[in-house]
Amino acid sequence: MHADVVLLTGSPGSGKTTTARSLAAGYPLAAHLHTDDFWHVIVSGGVAPYLPEADAQNQTVMAAIQQTAWTYAAGGFTTVVDGIIGPWMLSHFRRRGADEEPVRPRLHYIVLRPSREEAVRRAQARTAPDALVDEAIVTAMWDQFADLGPLEPHVIDTTAQRPHETLAAVQQAVAGGRFLLTDP
Fold first, then answer.
1. DSSP states of 49-73 as a string?
2. Is the CB of residue 59 less than 8 Å from the CB of residue 113?
């Protein structure tokens, strides 16, 4: 039995984690993979993932996230992956190696994108000790999602939405298959 994998992404302050937790909780069998947790398991030699010199590390971490998501999905779990997964990382989820199962889960790619100003406001309002609140970093990451080219239809504008409204929009998108990815 295979289930859906939902990649819920966007810049810091877009509402990913709040939405992902609630989305996963709405399924009878679901897993929520918070990608930050995968970076936090690096205890020595880690590089901040937003720095250019972190690319090799980020590729490794993304491969681990993909394998974990596929494993849960193969067990019948709807798997919500919450993190900064730009188009530049989708190859990890679109390709299938010889050792992977012959049937893959349905893959949804949903980008939450508030206005740049709203993303900064939300990010800076967070109080967690490790929260990313630096305006320059938040805006640089927002800029990476500003023009997604052919993936622009995968965006939900969350600028004026409250958390329950964003959740409803994402639930509708997943149920309707609006943001399914197909192989390139």
1. TTSGGGHHHHHHHHHHHHHHHHHHH
2. no
If you average pLDDT over residues 3-11, what whole number do you get?
95
Nearest CA among 21, 15, 16, 34 for reference residue 118 = 15
Q: How far is Cα 61 from Cα 49, in angstroms, rounded to an integer? A: 10
Rounded Cα gap, residues 140 and 130, in angstroms: 18
Handedness of CA 23, 16, 97, 94 (dihedral sign): positive
pTM check: above 0.85: yes
- In this predicted model, what pLDDT tens digit does every residue of 124-167 receive, in sequence order? 888 777 777 788 889 999 999 999 999 999 999 999 999 999 99
CATH classification of 4-176, choosing from 2.60.410.10, 3.40.50.300, 3.40.50.1820, 3.90.180.10? 3.40.50.300
Q: List the domain boundaries for the chain.
A: 4-176
